[in-house]
């Protein structure tokens, strides 16, 4: 934390951005995976089963057994030695750098950007320290989940509030709930598919696979299922996809209770058996490639598709730190920054273009133009 003596009391409040993603192990080893899974799977937002029962399962079976199996999976996708070898970490760090550059180019002065993970390192508390040390007193929080779920978005926001709890002088906060229907985000997904098709040609079918959550959470009011379908529908409309040439499924379920359906691991072989020869798969809920996309989908489901008679399975990478994604996230941040941007230090032309940009972002925001209830519907 900054030494209070060094704190620039006289300056106006400075705005900063806190990007959040889930977190990932620091190494592809059973010990590091266990350290990562313990707080993750102990979070009541993630697992709502009765506590004594769940703690028995977690400490009796999952934590002793799952990390060893997962170590092989993580090793198959680890990019280089060290914590940045995790694809999720690699892409998240690139996103942080490029979003800072985008904001500088579009606003005309530096806006500090920090990255925190809901579980593990870099911690959200450390990210808040980093912002505070740069004089930030207004924090715009962006959990990198386009579709809101209590299990992901709310867990990230809980971690922010928990990290603020022991602090004395709290910053002002704005939080972004979701961006499932944000125009530039849908454009970035469409752009990514068009590029993929230009290189590989169109597949017979496009599967849009989202991380699943227990079905009970949806029945209890979690809007995630509807928001996934909204992203999918808008993407299909943008690409003018014919009815029946695309579908939605849900992946990565764990345990025996019903999760959101249809399940990707069942849909993929079914598609092969029903005559789909070439299958394109995109995962529009993942801001960065990770274990669940690269190992589960791109490796395991590919094998299942081929084993069931399919010819070619093409995974479309996550948006990661590609330019259209950075543009979309930059526009999204601008939409939430009006009134907060410290434009005084920017020179006049930059100031004008920053104002134009903010106005533009508002114009393109479907959530600002449609009533809240309509924006929620699929
Ligand atoms: C047990 C319940 C889980 C819920 C609910 C859940 C929701 C959820 N998860 C993501 C994003 C990611 N999950 C990732 C890995 C992962 N997820 C769970 C469990 C639940 N997720 C586990 C146990 C794991 C670890 C790996 C495994 O055991 O399969 C990851 C990848 C992390 C990485 O290191 O690469 C992401 C990303 C979302 C968006 C979400 C709800 C919408
Ligand atoms: Fe998950
Ligand atoms: Fe998984």
Automatic annotation (TrEMBL):
GO MF annotation: an example: metal ion binding
A GO biological process held by the record: heme biosynthetic process
Reaction it catalyzes: heme b + 2 H(+) = protoporphyrin IX + Fe(2+); Fe-coproporphyrin III + 2 H(+) = coproporphyrin III + Fe(2+)
Residue numbers spanned by region Disordered: 346-378
Binding residues for Fe(2+): 211, 292
PROSITE patterns: FERROCHELATASE
Entry keywords, A to Z: Cytoplasm, Heme biosynthesis, Iron, Lyase, Metal-binding, Porphyrin biosynthesis
Pfam family, one: Ferrochelatase
Pathway named in the protein's UniProt entry: Porphyrin-containing compound metabolism; protoheme biosynthesis; protoheme from protoporphyrin-IX: step 1/1
One Gene Ontology cellular component: cytoplasm
Domain of life: Bacteria
Function in brief: Catalyzes the ferrous insertion into protoporphyrin IX.
Family the UniProt entry places it in: Belongs to the ferrochelatase family.
Listed name of the protein: Ferrochelatase
């Amino acid at each position: 934390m900054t030494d209070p003596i060094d704190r620039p009391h006289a300056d106006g409040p400075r705005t900063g951005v806190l990007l959040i993603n889930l977190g990932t192990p620091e190494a592809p080893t059973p010990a590091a995976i266990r350290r990562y899974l313990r707080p993750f799977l102990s979070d009541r937002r993630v697992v709502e089963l009765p506590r004594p029962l769940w703690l028995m399962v977690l400490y009796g079976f999952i934590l002793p057994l799952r990390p060893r199996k997962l170590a092989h999976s993580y090793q198959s996708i680890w990019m280089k030695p060290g914590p940045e070898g995790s694809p999720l970490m690699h892409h998240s760090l690139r996103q942080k750098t490029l979003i800072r550059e985008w904001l500088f180019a579009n606003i005309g002065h530096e806006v500090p950007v920090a990255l925190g993970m809901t579980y593990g390192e870099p911690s959200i508390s450390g990210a808040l320290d980093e912002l505070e040390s740069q004089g930030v007193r207004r924090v715009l929080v962006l959990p990198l989940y386009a579709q809101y779920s209590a299990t992901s978005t709310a867990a990230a926001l809980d971690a922010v509030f928990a990290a603020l709890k022991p602090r004395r002088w709290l910053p002002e906060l704005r939080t972004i709930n979701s961006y499932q229907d944000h125009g530039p985000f849908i454009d970035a997904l469409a752009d990514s598919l068009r590029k993929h098709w230009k290189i590989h040609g169109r597949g017979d079918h496009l599967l849009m696979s989202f991380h699943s959550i227990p079905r009970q959470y949806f029945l209890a009011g979690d809007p995630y299922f509807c928001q996934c379908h909204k992203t999918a529908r808008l993407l299909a409309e943008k690409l003018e996809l014919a009815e029946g040439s695309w579908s939605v499924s849900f992946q990565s379920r764990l345990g025996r209770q019903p999760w959101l359906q249809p399940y990707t691991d069942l849909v993929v072989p079914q598609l092969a058996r029903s005559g789909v020869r070439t299958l394109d798969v995109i995962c529009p809920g993942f801001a960065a490639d990770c274990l669940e996309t690269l190992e589960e989908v791109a490796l395991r489901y590919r094998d299942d598709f081929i084993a069931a008679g399919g010819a070619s399975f093409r995974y479309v990478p996550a948006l990661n730190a590609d330019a259209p994604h950075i543009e979309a996230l930059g526009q999204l941040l601008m939409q939430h920054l009006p009134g907060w941007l410290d434009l005084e230090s920017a020179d006049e032309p930059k100031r004008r273009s920053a104002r134009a940009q903010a106005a533009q972002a508002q114009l393109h925001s479907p959530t600002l133009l449609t009533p809240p209830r309509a924006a929620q519907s699929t």
